[in-house]
Amino acid sequence: MSHNVRISIGIAVLIALSVLFLFSVVHTAAGAPRPDSRAIAAGHRLAQAWCQSCHAIEPHMAGFFDEAPSFQSIADRKGTTALSLKVFWRTSHQNMPNLVISPEQAEVLSAYILSLKRN
Predict the structure, then answer these.
(1) Could you report the per-residue pLDDT of 6-25, keeping only the tens digit for each?
(2) DSSP summary character for residue 78
(3) How many other CB atoms are there within 10 angstroms of residue 52's CB atom?
């Protein structure tokens, strides 16, 4: 294999890897936008109105409720993402009331829960 062919193959591989890297960065950024403080505050208000009778919605409240998981524990689960919460809001659950929740309400509740996630 000539030197020029090896250089061409190396450049092609480098370009392909760069494109894959850029695609993964753009995809990750698009799939997990950073919620703003207004969305988090709105989600907190909804959690207070709808959820706190069964869930500990504040981090310092963990342990007060035995039946339903705290929002902190939900946020800290390995699989908790904006997408997993979106699916959760659209799925009925045996031990929870069936909520009729708009996409905007689901988004702000998810933003609040994800804001509790500890790194």
Answers:
(1) 777 767 666 766 655 555 54
(2) T
(3) 14
Is this prediction's pTM over 0.90?
no
CA atoms of 61 and 82, how far apart (whole Å): 23
Residue with tokens 């990750």: 28
Burial of residue 14 (CB within 10 Å: 0-12, 13-18, 19+) is: exposed
68 vs 28: CA distance, rounded Å:
31
Nearest Cα to 107, choosing from 92, 90, 91, 85? 85
Distance in angstroms (rounded) separating the CA atoms of residues 103 and 39: 13
The Cβ-side half-sphere exposure at 90, using a 13 Å CA radius, reads: 9
DSSP state of 91: S
Tell me the per-residue pLDDT of 44-58, one tens digit each, with 9 for 90 and over.
999 999 998 888 999
